[in-house]
Structures are given as C-alpha cells and as structure tokens.
C-alpha cells in the first residue's frame, strides 16, 4: 500500500508490460545517449529526474489505452527500451512499458489532484536503477474509480523525454486512441551532434555566457560519479517515503484575472526602440515579483534572479515535435533589487519582455546557452556551468519559472482530460479549467531567507490583483 493510500481506502492493482505492436523492427538495436541528455538522469527525484504527469480522465477505457500505447511505442521505440552502462546507451529492445492498473475503492477521481498524491497515483523509479536498465525508461499507472473516471499517470526518465517531448508523446498516444493517423515525431540526432561546439568555441561560449573557462578535473569526476549518486540516493528516499519537494504552494488565476493583469501590465508609453506590449507570462511573472518585494531588504545592493526554463527547439531550428531529453535552456535575468523595489507593474513587465525578446531570452542567446551546457556535458564539466547558473553571487531572491500553461490536455477517446498535475518544476504554470494554476516552489522564499510572516504576506499579495487604472 502506498504511503498515503491508507487515507483513501484499499485498492487492487495489477501490472502488464506493454510492448510495441510491430513484431518486426529494422532500426538500430542500440543508440548512444547524448551527454546532454545523460545529465538529466544523474540528479535525484526531487529535481524531476523521473517526473510524472497525472491527468484526470472523465472515463477510462483500459483496453483502448493499452492498445493505443502499443502503437505509440511503434512510433517512439526509445520509450520501450532500456538504458545500460549508467545511461550511456539505450537499448531499442522493445522491453516495453509497465502499465499498472489500480481499482480504487473511492467513488470518483479527484478533480483537484494534490501533489503528494502523486506518490500513490504515479510510478517513480530511482534514477540509478533506470540508468542501469533495472527499471523501465517510462511507466504508466491508471487508477480507475467506481464511477468510471480515472487518473492516468505517465512517468518517464528526463533522459528520454523533456517536458516538450513528454507532451508530444501524450499527444501521439491520445491521437492513436481516437483512431487518428499519426506521423512519427522528429529525431534529428545527427543534426544535434553537429550543433556541439569545438573545444575553442566552447571555451569562448563559456566565458561569454558565464565568465568561466571550465576544465575537467578529478574533483568534477568525483562529484559526478560518487558524491551526486550517494547524496541522490538519500534524497530519493526522502522523496519516495516522505514526499520531499512535493510541497509547492498552489494558486489559481482565472482567464479574466490574466486578461486584467496583461492589460494593467502593458506599458502605455515606451521609447521608440521598445515594444509597447507584453505577454501574459511576462505580466504574471512581473506581478509575482512585485508580490515578493516584502522579502527584499530596502538597502540591498544585490540582485533578483528571474530564471525561465525555455524550450530551445525553435532557437536550434528543430521541429516542435523533436524527441529529446534536453531541449531546454536555463535563461537567467538579473535585475537590481533596487529596480524591483522601485518599478511599477508595467515597468517590470516591460523589462522582462525586453530581456526575453532581445537580450537573455532571444533565439540567438538561447542557442548559445544550449550549446554551452551541452558542450560542457560532453567535456564532463557540466557541474561547473550549473553552479554558475544556480549559484550566482549577490542574489537576494531567486525565482525560476517553467511555463507549461499552453499545453493541450489530451483526449484519449473518452473525453478531454479535465485537469493535470506534475512534479516537474521548479515553479510551474499549468492549464486549468477557466485559467491556469501556479505551483509555486517554496525555494523562492528560502532563497530570500524570509520569515513565515513575510512569506504569508507575499502569498496574499499574489492573489490581490492590481486595481484597474482609469
């Protein structure tokens, strides 16, 4: 019985391994896993190394789900494979995806799935066991309730699919479940290999983007091969048995709220060389940054770090359905704390817009960021770069966002999924009925060293929308 299952009643479960439907496979039997993807399999579970996406189904058709999954694996054979040699190789052996079905004694699937319930509703494999091929690269768990509704949880190694690829796979699976014709997704590994920088260019990029000239060392190897796996095993235990990191604050913004925020955040006047519009993401992030102002010291000479996890496929000239485990960049924007304290909503939103469109978040910059971190992975110095990304100096507050609010909830032939939750992070925006949900990572508060009272004040400010300017 799962660690929270006793709260919700007894259940019965069974597991079947779903394999590709095609008996003949004429592709390669093994593939080298790019170093940039391997990096995402080394970290503990609390860093979404084997994340889950749980969807509420209005009705469950177990047979249809299994048959269409088998066909989806024909198009994406990697998902049915197994890793080996510590994640350096993936075997395209059709070993399959374990599909667990749980018959719940509860009347109906929860409309609002609590994050900690993912421990019971989804399958989480320890990253080291996935890298060694002891556990599957992906796993499915379907919980069926008395009224026929259900929760479908799709878990996978981040080496296999990043967020974009995971949703691409769900879309393929759902289309096949409805009987639609589907083309195989893109997998341009040779092209991605050509994107890797040579030694000289890598050093130039590392210096330009992060001010470092990383070199492989004994320390880097010890950190990667001994320290991280050892600490990760301990952290995984806390995650699996205590729900460590599944404690994000949950906020809802309706479509009307977001429209109002965007209207109020749009600058009325800007210099001739700047846009006079902002995106909904920029408006919401600016609003949230303003809500964090009680956490900042009035006389600070430091910075606020705003980080966006951005999909790099467009910047890399890759199709949106490119299957990969590392198609993202960590795009960091540093704003002087005094500016955050003095700016109004339009000013801060416009600042974020300029940074994302023409500076740090531009397509050219994203390409350089991706090539730098991927080049670092191939040289065994990725931890040097990651420390520069996540351990910047003189930071008063760090706020990192993964905007997944535009994801389309799939329809597996029994009606569109009604809600979604995932442990991917850090702070994530997810689609919700009539708006979006913000799952706010509490690390933003610990980064500022704030008190409980300051945290509560910030949360209240987030739910108080700005007054309409007449």
From TrEMBL:
This protein's record includes keyword Transferase: yes
MF-aspect GO terms: acyltransferase activity, transferring groups other than amino-acyl groups
Keyword Transferase: yes
Pfam families according to UniProt: Transferase
Keywords of the record: Transferase
Highest rank taxon of the organism: Eukaryota
InterPro entries per UniProt: CAT-like_dom_sf, Plant_Fungal_Acyltransferase
PANTHER family noted in UniProt: FATTY ALCOHOL:CAFFEOYL-COA ACYLTRANSFERASE, TRICHOTHECENE 3-O-ACETYLTRANSFERASE
Name assigned to this protein: Anthranilate N-benzoyltransferase protein 2
Organism this protein belongs to: Cladocopium goreaui
């Amino acid at each position: 019985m799962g660690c929270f299952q006793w709260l919700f009643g007894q259940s019965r479960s069974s597991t079947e391994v779903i394999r590709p439907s095609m008996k003949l496979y004429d592709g390669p039997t093994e593939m080298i896993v790019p170093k940039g993807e391997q990096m995402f399999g080394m970290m503990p579970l609390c860093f979404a190394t084997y994340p889950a996406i749980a969807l509420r189904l209005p009705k469950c058709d177990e047979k249809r789900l299994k048959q269409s999954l088998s066909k989806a694996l024909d198009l994406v054979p990697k998902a049915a494979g197994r890793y080996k040699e510590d994640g350096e190789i993936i075997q395209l052996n059709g070993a399959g995806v374990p599909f667990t079905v749980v018959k719940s004694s509860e009347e109906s699937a929860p409309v609002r799935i609590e994050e900690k319930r993912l421990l019971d509703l989804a399958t989480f494999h320890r990253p080291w066991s996935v890298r060694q091929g002891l556990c599957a690269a992906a796993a499915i768990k379907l919980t069926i309730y008395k009224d026929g509704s259900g929760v479908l949880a799709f878990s996978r190694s981040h080496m296999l699919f990043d967020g974009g690829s995971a949703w691409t796979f769900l879309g393929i699976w759902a289309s096949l479940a409805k009987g639609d014709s589907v083309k195989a997704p893109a997998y341009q590994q040779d092209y991605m290999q050509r994107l890797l920088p040579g030694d000289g260019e890598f050093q130039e990029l590392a210096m330009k983007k992060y001010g470092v000239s990383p070199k492989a060392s004994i320390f880097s190897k010890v950190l990667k091969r001994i320290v991280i796996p050892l600490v990760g095993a301990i952290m995984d235990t806390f995650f699996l048995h205590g729900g460590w990191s599944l404690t994000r604050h949950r906020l809802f913004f309706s479509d009307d709220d977001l429209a109002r925020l965007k209207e109020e955040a749009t600058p009325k006047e800007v210099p001739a060389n700047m846009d006079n519009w902002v995106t909904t993401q920029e408006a919401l992030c600016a609003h949230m940054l303003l809500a964090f102002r009680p956490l900042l010291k009035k006389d600070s000479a430091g910075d606020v770090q705003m980080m966006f996890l951005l999909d790099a496929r467009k910047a890399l000239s890759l199709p949106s359905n490119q299957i990969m485990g590392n198609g993202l960049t960590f795009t960091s924007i540093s704003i002087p704390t005094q500016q955050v304290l003095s700016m109004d909503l339009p000013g801060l939103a416009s600042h974020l817009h300029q940074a994302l469109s023409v500076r740090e978040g531009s397509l050219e910059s994203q390409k350089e960021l991706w090539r730098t971190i991927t080049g670092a992975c191939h040289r065994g110095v990725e931890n040097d770069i990651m420390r520069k990304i996540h351990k910047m100096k003189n930071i008063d507050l760090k706020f990192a966002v993964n905007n997944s609010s535009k994801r389309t909830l799939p329809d597996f032939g029994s009606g569109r999924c009604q809600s979604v939750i995932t442990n991917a992070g850090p702070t994530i925006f997810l689609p919700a009925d009539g708006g979006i949900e913000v799952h706010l990572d509490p690390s933003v508060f610990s980064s500022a060293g704030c008190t409980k009272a300051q945290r509560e004040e910030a949360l209240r400010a987030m739910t108080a929308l700005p007054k309409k300017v007449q």
